[in-house]
Specification:
Number of helices: 4
Strand content: under 5%
Largest sheet: none
Number of domains: 1
Radius of gyration: 18 Å
Transmembrane segments: 6-28, 59-76, 82-101, 122-141
Shape: elongated
Protein name: DUF2269 family protein
Keywords: Membrane, Transmembrane, Transmembrane helix
């Protein structure tokens, strides 16, 4: 593969990693505002959550696709330990993301929901997801020799 094309794919890969992780840090101060939010304000905040989850999901698609291209065209194989760990964490995070945000956000519309409980769950979910993403980022950047 041409050196410039390979470097461009690395840049796309890094940029999509930033877009996959960064917006979740913005949600942390937003969670605090949910406690005092009333109906229309609450809907706007929850809309921001939905948009962020959707944005990071699509950035994750670009991240995975560019990663696949980089593995096929780069010096690593699919049996590289840091790559296997990254893939393992990625699959865990996919299941986590699918079950974590959307069901919790939908519960805000249910009658008789416990707002404080849902907000606490959202905050916990954000931190867990950030930890998963940062672990994947660590494996991709450091590329440790595990075995």
């Amino acid at each position: 593969m041409d050196y410039l094309v390979y470097r461009t794919i690395i840049y796309i890969h890094a940029l999509s990693a930033i877009v996959s992780i960064g917006p979740f840090f913005i949600l942390l101060p937003l969670v605090k505002k949910l406690h005092a939010a009333q109906d229309t304000e609450l809907d706007a905040y929850l809309g921001t959550f939905r948009f962020t989850v959707r944005l990071t999901k699509h950035a994750g698609h670009v991240l995975v696709f560019s990663g696949i291209v980089l593995v096929f065209s780069g010096p690593w194989t699919w049996s590289t330990p840091w790559l296997l760990m990254t893939l393992f964490i990625m699959f865990c995070s996919l299941f986590f993301l699918a079950r974590a945000f959307s069901p919790t956000l939908r519960k805000f519309k249910e009658e008789g929901h416990n707002k404080d409980e849902l907000i606490a769950k959202l905050k916990r979910t954000i931190w867990i997801y950030i930890a998963l993403l940062l672990a994947m980022l660590w494996f991709m950047v450091v590329k440790p020799t595990l075995w």
